[in-house]
Amino acid sequence: MERVNLSAGEWRVMEELWKAPATLMELVHALGESAGWAKSTVSTVVRRMEDKGLIRAEQEGRAKVFYPAIAREKAAAAETESLLFRVYHGSVGLMVSTLLQNRRISREELKELQALLDQGEEEQT
Amino acid sequence: MERVNLSAGEWRVMEELWKAPATLMELVHALGESAGWAKSTVSTVVRRMEDKGLIRAEQEGRAKVFYPAIAREKAAAAETESLLFRVYHGSVGLMVSTLLQNRRISREELKELQALLDQGEEEQT
DNA sequence: TTGAATGGTTGACATGTGTAGACCGATATG
DNA sequence: CATATCGGTCTACACATGTCAACCATTCAA
Q1: What are all long-range contacts of A36-40, with beta carbons under 8 Å and residues at least 24 apart?
Q2: What proportions of chain A, in percent to the nearest 5, are helix, strand and coil?
Q3: Which residues of chain B make contact with A113, given a CB cutoff of 8 A?
């Protein structure tokens, strides 16, 4: 269970690659639009991420195609756990309560959450 | 609604100050034990935090006493919201579901969460 | 009076991250 | 052929953060 902890910029890149693997130039276009990054910015971030093993590249014709090397769920879980302990000392209740206090949550979403909890209860049995 | 976003080190300091306001030396002792920080490390981090307005100091006798300048709930909420959007695009359901998937949650905690949700439902009415 | 404790301040270095300009070779196209 | 585009590398800078050693002035106890 590796300790992945992505920066905001790294998340942007991963988001693209989780949608679909892409060449550097595809990333340049996507992130140029969505993040306003210059080509060299994209390139640098991508290179550093490859060095770290967050993504990997495969030569495909003239261009390299980049793939995520970690699953989105894994990265999301790692970030979330890290925050859970740093901020809430591991208390899920506190975290969820904060989450709920800070928004007007829709009736539908409440139902969904309750369903999630019920599911958790069953598994426990 | 200021954008507070504390680093891991800053959290350690704030944790101490949220327990109770403290002098630099009290922080040095506490963080020396809990974090293994040298006196100068504590001092530097504290100074930078004061510059940023995260904490404020009041002369009290020979020593300055440091106080948190932001509430814990505010800081916690800011971090949580930031993660919620960066990682889950704002979906509370996804976030909670990840949280639940990653642990065996106790029956009591489940009850608590359910109570939280029920409360949310009432408010909505 | 001298040495330890109190209560600091300063300057410095390493690493990670955000950001990009300059440059370069290959290829496609007018 | 010239030149634009594709696909990419390299170097560099700034700022935040983690980390500390060295230094200093004041006070208090032995």
Answers
A1: none
A2: 65, 10, 20
A3: 92-93, 96, 117
B117 and B66 co-located in one domain: no
Q: Is the pLDDT of residue B117 over 80?
A: no
Q: For residue A109, give the nearest of B73, B86, B92 by CB distance.
A: B92
CATH number, domain of A10, equals 1.10.10.10
User: What residue in B sits closest to A75 (Cα-Cα)?
Assistant: B87
Determine the structural domain holding residue A49 and report its residue range.
1-89
- Decide: helix, strand or coil at residue B104: coil
Tell me how far apart the alpha carbons of residues B79 and B47 are, in angstroms, rounded to a whole number: 22
B108 and B64 housed in the same domain: no
pLDDT tens-place string over residues B20-49: 999 999 999 999 989 999 999 999 999 999
What is the phi/psi pair of residue A7, to 5°? -75, 170
